[in-house]
Amino acid sequence: MNIDKKIADDLVANDVSFVTTVPCKQLAGVIEEVEARKEIFHIPANKEDEGMGLCAGAHMGGKRPMIIMQNTAIGVTINTLATLTQYYRMPLPMLISYRGELREPVACQVEMAVHTKALLAQMNIPTYHFHWQKDVEEFDNILKYTFMCNKPVAILTDANFWGGYGDQ
Amino acid sequence: MIRSEILREIAPILNPHLVVCNIGLPSQELHMIDDNERNFYMLGTMGLSSSIGLGLALAQDKTVISIDGDGSVLTNLGTLPTIANNVADNFILLIIDNGSYGSTGDQPTYAGKKTKLEAVAAACGCENVVTCQDVDTGKALQAAIDSKKMTVIVSKCDSGNIKLPVITMDPVVIKHRFMQAVAS
Ligand SMILES: Cc1ncc(C[n+]2csc(CCOP(=O)(O)OP(=O)(O)O)c2C)c(N)n1
Ligand SMILES: [Mg+2]
């Protein structure tokens, strides 16, 4: 199964047509796939809170948005999640590469990884964790759930899910 | 002129259009001067007025005017390259540059010192950047609307605030009526 293609297929099937991204090595394939889909407007952001602002505007303009980012960005976006996305009740699927988890080669990434689930729990953000490739089968239901409840929802995707780091 | 005087003067020009208004006193002032369903008031999230406005402009066809502040643009400077590289000709970013963090008591910003936001915007690739004095803001705004070209306006004005109450409207109500106006 090609998980990048499956994720993009689910986005299109759920009418998610406005996607903002800040790259992570693990996300390179899915970002490329999103960029290639004509049904999706891809707008790279310089910082993840900026991206959430773009998504808020797109939502109010009638589009279904999504953000693709690294888990370190949870540290950047708490205020925006609380005072914009949650306060105004906006739906926002967040596809998050979960760095610093199993098969992580870069020690510094573990420092935000240990806070990631605690911060999301503190924010009452529904959180899913994809560890195996087959977990991607839930993505479609998570998108439907997000636009049903009008909340930010986190999908943490670790290195094992993306197939590790090869020989690193 | 101070910000509230500019807003009073341009309120009739803003009125028919979708307006995303910055946190703090700008939203409180616009709410007092001309509250209507086409205004989206930010109650928090300093810095994102331009991003919300751009996202909205890219998602639909109506004209969108983001009212921003110099301090807020400085806090989200990454917005200017994103605006420059994702042209939405129905988008106007109006930066009310009073050279200070007005809403928190007029502490000076770097925009009031050496930094020129109009030069930053141009360097970021924004193609239509207009600098004007406070008294000419209405003229510049109307010209930008009529041009149907994405425009960044930097309006230079004085620091200073008036006393007025906070917005007590519920955020979900603000969003709901705004989305109805967007869809109408
Ligand atoms: C993250 C964050 N830091 C600080 C504040 C406090 N704050 C609210 S409005 C504001 C000033 C904004 O200045 P500017 O954008 O120039 O607008 P002005 O009030 O001058 O029109 C500040 C510092 C905040 N709301 N959020
Ligand atoms: Mg200011």
Structure notes:
The complex is a heterodimer of chains A (about 170) and B (about 180). Chain A is an alpha/beta fold. Chain A has a single domain, classed as Rossmann fold (3-Layer(aba) Sandwich), CATH 3.40.50. Chain A is built from seven helices and six strands; from the N terminus they run αβαβαβαβαβαβα. A six-stranded parallel sheet of chain A has the order 2-1-3-4-6-5, with helices on both faces. In chain A, strand 1, helix 2 and strand 2 form a beta-alpha-beta unit. In chain A, helix 1 crosses helix 2. Chain A is globular, with a radius of gyration of 15 Å. Chain B has one domain: Thiamin diphosphate (ThDP)-binding fold, Pyr/PP domains (Rossmann fold), CATH 3.40.50.970. Chain B has eight helices and eight strands, in the order αβαβαβααβββαβαβα. In chain B, helix 1 crosses helix 2 and helix 1 packs parallel to helix 7. The site of thiamine diphosphate has 19 residues of chain B, from helix 2, helix 4 and strand 5.
The residue fraction in helices of chain B comes out at: 40-55%
Strand proportion of chain A, as a percent range, falls in 15-25%
Figure out the total of helices of chain A.
7
Mean pLDDT of chain A: 96
Shape of chain A: globular
How much beta of chain B, percentage-wise?
Answer: 15-25%
Low-confidence stretches of chain B: none
CATH superfamily (homologous) name of chain A: Thiamin diphosphate (ThDP)-binding fold, Pyr/PP domains
Helix fraction of chain A?
Answer: 40-55%
> Given the helix and strand composition of chain B, which structural class is it?
alpha/beta
The main pleated sheet of chain A reads as:
6 strands, parallel
Distance between the termini of chain A: 23 Å
Poorly predicted parts of chain A: none
Strand order of the largest sheet of chain B: 2-1-3-4-8-7
Supply the number of structural domains of chain A. Answer: 1
CATH superfamily of chain B: Thiamin diphosphate (ThDP)-binding fold, Pyr/PP domains
Distance between the termini of chain B: 35 Å
CATH architecture field of chain A? 3-Layer(aba) Sandwich
Highest-level CATH class of chain B: Alpha Beta
